[in-house]
Amino acid sequence: MSNTSERKQIIQDSILRTNARRRIIDKAITVATIACVAAALIPLGSILFEVFKNGASAISFEFLTEPQGSIVRGDGGIGPAIQGTLIVVGLASLMGVPVGVLGGIYLSEYAGTGKFPYFVRFFNNVMTGLPSIVLGIVGYIILVLTIGSFNVMAGAIALSIIMIPIVLGVTEQTVKLVPNSVREAGHSLGIPKWKVTMFITLWSAKNGVLTGIVLGISRIAGETAPLITTILGTSLFFQGFFGPVDALPLRIWRLSQQPYDASHEFAWGSALILILMILSLSVALRYLVLERKFRLRLPPLSLNYSFPIVSGMLKKMRGTKE
Amino acid sequence: MTSPESTKSREERKNMLSSFFLRGRRRGDTIFKWVVIAAAGYTLLLLGLVVFSVGEGSLAAFGKEGFFQFFAQTDWNPVEGRESYGALPYIVGTLVSAGIAMAIGVPISLGIAVFISEIAPPRIGTPVGYIVEVLAAIPSIIYGLWALFVFRFWILDFIERPLHEAFGGSIPLFAQTPFGLDVFTAGIVLAIMIIPIISSIAREILKAVPNSQREAAYSLGATRWETVWKFVFPYAKAGLLGAAILGLGRAVGETILVTMVIGNAVGAAAIPEGLFDQSQTLSSVIANEFNEAVTNFHISSLIALAVVLFILTMAINIGAQFLVSRMVRVVPGARE
Amino acid sequence: MTSEEYADSLDYKVGRTDSDVRDYKVSVRHLDSWFGTKQALKDINFDVKENTVTALIGPSGCGKTTLIRCLNRMNEMTASAAVKGSVFLDKVDIYDRSVDPVIIKRRMGMVFQKPNPFPTMSIYDNVAAGLKLNGIRDKKLINEIVEESLKGAVLWEEVKDELDKPGISLSGGQQQRLCIARALAMQPEVLLMDEPTSALDPIASAKIEELMNDLKKDLTIIIVTHNMQQAARVSDYTAFMYLGELIEYGPTKQIFENPQKELTERYISGKFG
To answer: ipTM of this model?
Structure first.
């Protein structure tokens, strides 16, 4: 220990020597991270700004309810597209939500540790990563080829396949979080397990499950790719479940491909409607109503694409925290 | 305190309630159990359906060209009588555009995650986090619309033209005359799209790093950035890698946005030779040609592209899970 | 000693604001601390003699952890923390503007309640972490310091052949000694220990207590503990805190056998905890 004071001096000198540089680096990185935030917020601001600025002028009652007239003159509107979106998304939700919720309940309340639950989880994980165009092709093969024309049902099926893993994943996670005491209270009253699950446990988890459903709906409402290969898009209103139909995302795409100014204006207007629909669904509903009123910590929006995988990762990092 | 009458009716009530709840109990439970199992099984069925249908639909194309040949060929000729299709140019286009998206998107996402979880106080960090996530709620068609009519001119004027003028002669990457619709623009807009995904997962991952690690680092005299870079990041590297790869998966699978800004070159011309070259990705070709495809062979080839995309996405997804689970084993609990 | 001699001795002067800060290694003067609007420490005054072990005891929430963290400015990690008053290390107030907090951290090392070695680093790298962080590059010097620190923490014999193994492959007690070695590598003058054995089994705890006895020959040690028996075993001086105030402070023997304040007596005899 005889050279301890020598060592202290060496360390001290080193600290003094490197301090200035380290502090400058620290400050510089702080500035850099702020720049990163700006790099994300500026495009966001621009997108919202442009959509509102360019789309507002197109909005009118006619725009919202009439089918498209003469393209060059900018007659008519996107009525069929709005109707189509509502129909296809509605149908897809009808197909997707029950399956997703019930499947999530299965994994949370009924599944053991066997192979079947393992594969269900694994494959649902896998499905969240599937590109939506692939699912559009599946819709094409099973319902367009068989029926002979592009149709609504094919689009609804494709969208429901996108929706199911999202709803299933969120349902499983939120239902699992319901404390056991709640279930036990139900059981101790002699209530059969299925009623406990549906009316007590699920009810306790309803906010989370609802969030998952809203996540799913807002995701599929904006999807374009699966619609290209299934519903085709048309300028007419709904003609039956086995005929083609239009939808907002698809309409925006086709309009953007045309060279006319009026088409572009329509495209921005459609974009405005679409954004209003989706943002009001996902943002307003979740953050203002659900979170304020029920004070939940909800899974972030971007986990649309990855929730089951991420929660698995996080669990491993923290050690299972059940 | 309780009279005989009220006790009796309490008994009666109890019996009534139990029998009400017990009625059909066994049957109800069994039925419900099978309902939920069916729902779970349906999801497996769906995946099987997906695999089977695209496999079957692409058979014609793979059969004609040979499975591995299809991956390696570069022509794309829908003219009847001389049809020939190959996926290679689009595989390259997909990888290049996704690569650019990752190169730009990952650092920015990590920067945002570090800002929100390590630097900013919660009352600034939390709202910023929410706002960044709104980016994720915006449908890709609207990204595409904005990129096509607005953003591409920003990139053209502020990045592409200057780079081309300054380095076009010397560096082949910048040699093509830029028009704004090219693989570079596609890459940048893809980056913006994947930023909310990577950054929000990265944020959760960073939050999961125990504070005791940061305390140990500070007690040794580390600055804030040194704590993050040298101690928090290594601890979290498995999760951060997983986050990045999830972003990659998203970038690879994106269709409509890419279609609108990548310039839509076909066949061998779609192999980008420089950043400002036009190209296409596996998904953008399908979107562009599906509705106009006439021959069965053409359609089958497009489906074959979907199969390639499917395989690529699967590989990324499964590879990610494997990598992450291997790295996560490093992370502690003490052996007591 | 006579009462006059006692009145003149440093022991008596300890804890009184009129004592001379130059006689002590660490002196706390009029220290207040807040978390947001809640005041966690109220007018703390005490002195720590060099080469002694001082224990801070008191029921949970009394502020002992807050106090020890104020001693090396670790409290600044918490966003809403505010501090008023002075902490003198030798003659210098560490809260003075001209003082570099990194130097303070070198002079006052810290060991935490739950062992927290860096899991991605080997045993060697863990001990060397502080040195490399602060710019030391001389490999020979680092080797020497690592070996000495591990010896000082009585861990060298157990790990000398396995320096490459990850820091977390050790048992809990070994990990804590690794953390001590890591702190020792910075050649500190004071070692602050925040409940260092509360997460360890009795055998590992005993080893660490033995260690404290050895280390105090070269360092000054301040330890927070909720275990009164431990305080009685290892410390030379004890400070009893309650609700953010320093109630009583003096030589350990005196505190435990002849406490001056009633509150102290009640805590010591277990009437509340």
So the answer is: 0.85
